[in-house]
Design brief:
Layout lengths: L11 E5 L28 H13 L4 E5 L9 H8 L5 E6 L8 H6 L4 E5 L5 H8 L4 H13 L3 E8 L8 H10 L3 E6 L16 H9 L5 E2 L8 E5 L6 E5 L12 E4 L4 E3 L8 E2 H6 L5 H9 L26 H4 L2
Parallel strand pairs: 1-2, 1-10, 2-3, 3-4, 4-5, 5-6, 6-9
Antiparallel strand pairs: 7-8, 8-9, 10-11, 11-12
Helix pairs in contact: 1-2
Bound molecules: S-adenosylmethionine and iron/sulfur cluster.
The site of iron/sulfur cluster has 12 residues, from loops.
Length: 326
């Protein structure tokens, strides 16, 4: 068991496989000329496997692979298949552009559910947001995964002036498609042009949906970060991840490992613990993991509060999202 000083048990590890990506979402990757970490500084296949096993021995029972884009890593299939042999629920978060190449691997790994990011249902806006013309590929891959029996959650970062007018288009999509749309409040990270007036809040999202549809709240499960809803009669559901207006830190069970082997006890933590260097030196990383968990802040990395209108992004010390692993 990995308990922090607030009694929260940490059994969920998110591993970033790379800080490389084939899209350029402005809210995640700060600049076009961003330099990816050289491969030698990333955790290698055997290091990921060994470090994951150490976390599992300490109580981890769920692992999410993320990035950057996890599926641009050349040995992603090998990593997925290897981690699928551990006694964990394995899943991943992906931008969906490469999923057509991975359907069989995901099946072999017994992955049942995955998160795919898609912030707009308009091809021209997709290009504006991601600087790459891949809307059709992602949209088709979402449907491909659904028809192959996967439970698909679609992550939509809701941003005022960008996609707030599309909320009900996403809800309409859930009418006949068993897709689970999750609107995520826009979060501040290094260099991502965040300002509080670009946050489209949980309450605003809900008001938009309720203006057109009857809405029923679904029951939250322990550790849920999303407030879940359904429109009666729709094949899919929707949810809101209200990190900025109503954080869910009290039930947090997450830890993160960056692609260069640094542990973060919170998405917003200032501090990082270098597990990879210690591991490469042949030393025990368990005391470092315990120390990191023991020093976890009560909420939001101790850097801000849910009073998001008072948040000044430039005062937050953190990496960019792409180098953390969302
Ligand atoms: N490349 C994969 C993808 O796009 O799904 C995985 C990594 S991405 C960093 C993980 C998730 O973080 C995505 O759903 C993305 O939309 C979300 N994300 C990135 N920057 C964000 C921000 N500033 N606010 C809220 N969510 C963000
Ligand atoms: Fe790449 Fe995902 Fe970040 Fe977009 S959100 S730049 S797809 S890592």
């Amino acid at each position: 068991m990995m308990l922090d000083s607030f009694g929260r048990d940490h059994n969920y590890l998110r591993i970033s496989l790379t800080d490389n990506c084939n899209l350029r979402c402005f809210y995640c990757m700060p600049e076009e000329d961003y330099e990816f970490t050289p491969a030698s500084r990333l955790m290698q296949f055997d290091e990921i496997e060994a470090i994951a096993k150490i976390f599992v021995a300490e109580g981890v029972n769920k692992i999410r692979l993320t990035g950057g884009e996890p599926l641009v890593r050349k040995d992603a299939d090998k990593i997925i298949l290897s981690l699928s042999k551990l006694p964990v629920t394995l899943t991943l978060t992906t931008n969906g552009t490469r999923l057509h190449e991975y359907v069989e691997v995901l099946k072999q790994a017994n992955i049942k559910s995955l998160n795919i990011s898609l912030d707009t249902l308009q091809a021209d806006k997709f290009l504006l947001l991601t600087r790459r013309d891949q809307f059709r590929q992602v949209y088709d891959n979402i449907h491909r995964l659904i028809s192959n029996g996967f439970h698909v959650k679609v992550n939509v970062v809701a941003m005022k002036g960008m996609n707030d007018t599309e909320i009900n288009d996403f809800i309409e999509w859930t009418k006949d498609t068993p897709v689970h749309v999750r609107f995520i409040e826009f979060m501040p990270f290094s260099g991502n042009k965040w300002t509080s007036n670009k946050v489209f809040t949980w309450q605003q999202i809900l008001a938009v949906v309720k203006s057109k549809y009857p809405v029923v709240r679904l029951t939250d499960e322990k550790h849920d970060t999303a407030k879940k809803y359904t429109v009666p009669g729709h094949a899919g559901t929707f949810a809101v991840i209200s990190t900025m207006t109503s954080p869910f830190c009290s039930g947090c069970n997450r830890m993160r490992l960056t692609a260069d082997g640094k542990m973060k006890n919170c998405l917003f933590s200032k501090e990082e613990t270098d597990l990879l260097t210690t591991f490469r030196n042949g030393d025990d990383i368990v005391p470092l993991i315990q120390q990191s968990i023991g020093s976890k802040a009560k909420e939001l990395g101790g850097q801000f509060t849910a009073d998001f209108e008072q948040v000044h992004a430039e005062e937050i010390h953190n990496r960019s999202m792409i180098t953390i692993g969302g």
